[in-house]
Design goal:
The protein has twelve helices and 29 strands. By secondary structure, it is of the alpha+beta class. Helix 7 packs across helix 11 (480-490), helix 7 (360-403) runs antiparallel to helix 12 (498-509) and helix 8 (416-427) runs antiparallel to helix 11 (480-490). The two termini are 42 Å apart.
């Protein structure tokens, strides 16, 4: 049976793409099944010390499969973008986080477009309705300390990239019924994953949920496998294979052959660390997640039982690490022009409900959870509103500088010090901060006698406006919480200068576009 769970990052989480990295660690934009396997092993090995056969079955025989954790969008799990999707060069694959309807999929369309050049969509996650799942990433640079001298170790500078906190992912574990309660209890105890768990990284919260999917549909002449996770195959000689045969997928697929013209296969090399030998195993090649494998049936008819088996059991080897998960015959494969309606049968999830007869203690816990979730939603909403204000300020500085043809060596618009005066009012919880900032003859943001600051003008949509009037209209009804976040970020820069505005715009370009 398949157990679903959601994992929320409470701290930044570091999941290195390669354990062999020695300097700058590139982090995965998802949580692989191997990370959950390791976290559960750390919990269960001591508990099962007297019954080592059970720990062996769970972690070493492949009886239990640990699927990857992908971002949650609403109540749907986003999946890796298919490698067969292409977009015309120079155009964006997503507009306001929605799939561009000019994205194409069918190989014949791709090759028949004449001189038009297309680029492959590589990386990222998408929902069945064409919504892009944006995983927020960050990077930090650290240095090692000499334990004997207590000073910085020479030549020991390194960087970590990480998944930012307050993001939710969903994963699954395929396990026999007899292990269900044991694994569920261990999941609830997982509090840290990834690298650098002894510092400020790695804290997570794991919650069991329920998930449901629809059975795969059948195609008349082809079998299409969309790799939702990495897939690994070995040929008859024990070597890695990137062109699997029908028998490698299922023993009953004798006549099925791989259509290399319509398949889109990307690969990468991995070398797993062998704990017993304390060294890395030989490198192997695996088919990367997002790849599309198209098989010609050659007259063979596939029963719904086989399709269900492939969807449930996966394909290839090392499925205990989360490899081999595929979506069978997705709806988007039949479409020449992709439309963000129903691209595939989604994996819908919802939190597990408490029993109707729960006691007083559970009711108190549920109330606390609801209160905590409401607070988190309020924080997220405030961050989005603050980001919207920052983009309005960016546009205002751009308009003022461009309309007045201000040179790079000159300032245009209010300086960082002028914004700081408003920030001091907001931090002090002054109730009438808006009136003190924008109203009256002695207000802070006075256009008079400040020709190139608050008083700088440009042509707006309804006529001439100046910086003071534009900001008064934009900030009037904002709450104190939003203003604090807005001014805290804005006061890190001085957008009145050319270089300060450039740095400010570079910062905004790294933020999610949902704040527009």
């Amino acid at each position: 049976m398949r157990l679903y769970y959601q994992i929320t990052t409470q701290d930044p989480v570091i999941i290195s793409q390669s354990n062999a990295t020695t300097n700058n660690h590139n982090t995965c934009d998802f949580i692989p099944g191997s990370a959950i396997l390791g976290a559960l092993a750390a919990k269960l090995y001591p508990e099962l010390a007297e019954d080592q056969s059970k720990s062996w079955n769970i972690f070493h025989t492949g009886t239990v499969q640990f699927g990857p954790c992908y971002p949650l969008v609403g109540r749907e799990v986003a999946l890796p973008i298919p490698a067969s999707w292409h977009i015309e060069k120079g155009k964006l694959a997503f507009e306001n986080a929605k799939l561009n309807e000019q994205t194409i999929n069918v190989p014949s369309v791709f090759y028949d477009r004449g001189e038009t050049q297309y680029k492959q969509l590589r990386g990222g996650f998408i929902t069945s309705k064409g919504v892009e799942a944006q995983v927020k990433m960050g990077q930090v640079t650290k240095t090692a300390i000499n334990n004997k001298l207590g000073i910085v170790e020479q030549g020991q500078l390194y960087s970590y990239s990480y998944i930012e906190q307050a993001q939710t992912f969903v994963g699954w574990i395929e396990a026999p019924e007899s292990y269900k309660s044991l694994i569920e209890n261990a999941l609830r105890q997982v509090t840290r994953i990834g690298r650098a768990k002894n510092t400020e990284f790695g804290r997570v919260a794991v919650t069991p949920i329920t998930g449901k999917t629809k059975p795969p549909q059948s195609l008349q002449s082809q079998l299409v496998l969309w790799c939702a996770a990495d897939c690994e195959f070995l040929d008859e000689f024990g070597n890695s294979s990137l062109s699997p045969s029908g028998k490698m997928i299922d023993s009953e697929l004798d006549e099925v052959t791989l259509n290399k013209d319509q398949s889109y296969i990307r690969s990468h090399t991995i070398a797993r660390f062998n704990q017993k030998r304390q060294s890395f195993d030989s490198q192997t090649q695996v088919i990367s997640k997002g790849s599309v494998l198209v098989f010609d049936l050659n007259g063979q008819t596939l029963s719904q039982t086989i399709l269900n088996k492939i969807a449930a059991d996966g394909i290839g080897i090392n499925k205990q690490f989360g490899q081999g998960w595929v979506m069978v015959n997705p709806s988007w494969y039949d479409a020449e022009q992709l439309t963000p309606s129903q691209l595939y049968s989604p994996l819908d999830v919802e939190p597990q409900k408490l029993a109707a007869d729960c006691g007083e203690g559970e009711s108190t816990l549920l109330a606390w959870i609801n209160e905590h979730q409401a607070a988190e939603q309020s924080k997220t909403s405030a961050k989005q509103d603050a980001l919207k204000l920052l983009r309005k300020v960016e546009k205002a500085y751009d308009s003022a500088r461009g309309f007045n043809n201000i040179g790079k060596h000159l300032q245009a618009g209010p300086s960082s010090n002028q914004w700081s005066r408003i920030y001091e009012l907001v931090k002090a919880d002054v109730e009438n901060w808006n009136a003190l900032a924008f109203k009256g003859e002695h207000c802070i943001c006075k256009a008079k006698n400040d020709e190139f600051g608050w008083g700088i003008e440009w042509q707006g949509q309804t006529g001439y406006t100046n910086f003071a009037a534009a900001m008064d209209a934009a900030l009037t009804n904002e709450s104190t919480a939003v203003m604090r976040l807005f001014l805290e970020q804005l006061c890190r820069y001085d957008p009145s200068t050319y270089n300060g505005l450039k740095s400010f715009k570079a910062y905004l370009s790294t933020q999610p576009q949902g704040g527009n």
